[in-house]
Design brief:
globular, 15 strands, 3-stranded antiparallel beta sheet, binds 2-amino-4-trifluoromethylsulfanyl-butyric acid, single chain, 4-stranded antiparallel beta sheet, binds cobalt (II) ion, Creatine Amidinohydrolase, alpha+beta
């Protein structure tokens, strides 16, 4: 796109200004990084102000759904109830639960308990009990714009070991977030997450990561946490992606349910935790759009 755009064309960002006095210098800066061997974002994952405004509306629904769950979840809550809350609130606000029918996924939300790493089915047989730790992962489509975030909930009294896993996992996400800045690299974030997890005796799931999001459910870049500072994709203002590390108390290895091909568990049966936020790279640093 940058190559095809002439100096006097209206800028691709929709500002109405001429390209030469809007994003031309920005695109040239990215080109310099590319020429120097960096992985750089394609223009299609750099959001315009109009797209960012639309994505923020989608995020409002996702936040409202998770806020409702936070207030109502507890001992005895069934997976199927959470699934209904998500469907009813999302559609009531004019949105669509993004997981529903996504690659054949049969529910509106993922509910992953204890040793479940992610993509847990919110069925009637899932009945939350005292001492469980559970991740509820919500994603919304509103007006064609996608949002995606997840939170952990401790059900009743939880053992100190599991509570610590939940807390450290949140810290991992927050320490990764602090590394997000324009003209930094995705690996700055990844290494911060990784190092904090391992410093606490935990491991990080390698196979499943975060992702660009906004115009699609899953866009470039893929967001891992085994990357090194100064590596991976260059971060530029207008990029939106999730930070959603899955941290295991035991070994990093995972396995997938052979029957439904969705639900992911730790191989050793030890607990796993995950928090997910959606982050916009800004001129100054970052803005959290969804949590
Ligand atoms: N919300 C998950 C994520 O963070 C994706 C779930 S895929 C689904 O990427 F099909 F289960 F929804
Ligand atoms: Co996600």
């Amino acid at each position: 796109m940058a190559g095809k755009m002439s100096r006097n064309d209206p800028c691709w960002c929709g500002s109405g200004r001429k390209y030469k006095s809007c994003h031309m210098a920005f695109d040239e800066k990215i080109e310099k990084y590319r020429a120097a061997g960096h992985i750089v974002p394609k223009q299609e994952i750099i959001k315009t102000p109009e797209q960012i405004a639309g994505i923020k509306e989608s995020c409002k629904i996702n936040i409202a759904v998770l806020d409702y769950i936070e207030e109502h979840i507890g001992v005895g809550t069934k997976g199927s109830e959470i699934d209904k809350w998500v469907y009813d609130i999302t559609t009531g606000m004019g949105g669509i639960p993004a997981p529903l029918n996504y690659k054949g996924y049969p529910y509106s939300v993922c509910v992953s308990v204890n040793d479940q790493v992610c993509h847990g089915f919110p069925t009637e047989d899932v009945v939350l009990k005292e001492g469980d730790i559970v991740n509820v992962d919500c994603s919304t489509i509103f007006n064609g714009y996608f949002s995606d975030s997840s939170r952990m909930f401790c059900i009743g009294e939880v053992s100190p070991e599991k509570k610590r896993l939940v807390e450290v996992t949140k810290e991992c996400m927050e320490m990764g977030l602090k590394e997000v800045k324009p003209w930094g690299h995705l690996g700055d974030m990844g290494q911060a997450v990784h190092d904090h997890a391992y410093a606490n005796g935990y491991t990080v799931v390698r196979e499943i990561g975060g992702h660009g999001v906004g115009l699609e459910f899953h866009e470039e870049p893929w967001v891992g946490y085994n990357s090194k500072r100064g590596t991976e994709m260059l971060l530029v203002p207008g990029m939106i992606f999730t930070i959603e590390p899955m941290i295991n108390m035991g070994k990093a290895d995972i396995c997938i349910d052979g029957e439904n091909n969705w639900e992911v568990y730790t191989k050793d049966g030890e607990p796993s935790a995950q928090w997910e936020i959606m982050v916009l790279v800004t001129e100054e640093g970052y803005e959290v759009l969804c949590w």
